[in-house]
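Before drawing any conclusions, I looked closely at one protein, both as residues and as discrete backbone shape codes, quoted below without any editing:
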Amino acid sequence: MSFGFSISDFRTVGDLAWALYHDCYKVARGAPQEFQLLLGEISTLSNAFKILQEEAKDPNSALVQAGENRVQMVNEMVKGIADTLKKLERVAKKYQILGSSSKRRQLWTKFKWSIEFSDIDSLRSKLVYHNSVMSLLLTSVGKYV
């Protein structure tokens, strides 16, 4: 039972966060610090989504019991996170990070990412914001990230 939450959206966004983390982790060794920070934010978001999914499925959770306004707020938060992750996925594909296996290609990708630092940092800032909102929400229902 979903209790007004779109559990499939939670799962889709959580899966996207995990896939991005996994694929970026493959090329993260020796990457610039900005890339490492981005990777950390994706990891935190992925873990928070796992907790949120569990919370949304539990009919006795404070999140479910909080009412329609909280449900609407959470659904809007999930939509915003999905939008940011999709932008990050497009950037990752642009720089061919996903599925890259050649060491030469990985080095080239790291170089290209460092050139466009402001775009990457902007996405990381959005992830920091989303992680903060998610942490606040989960803390308010007695879960900690």
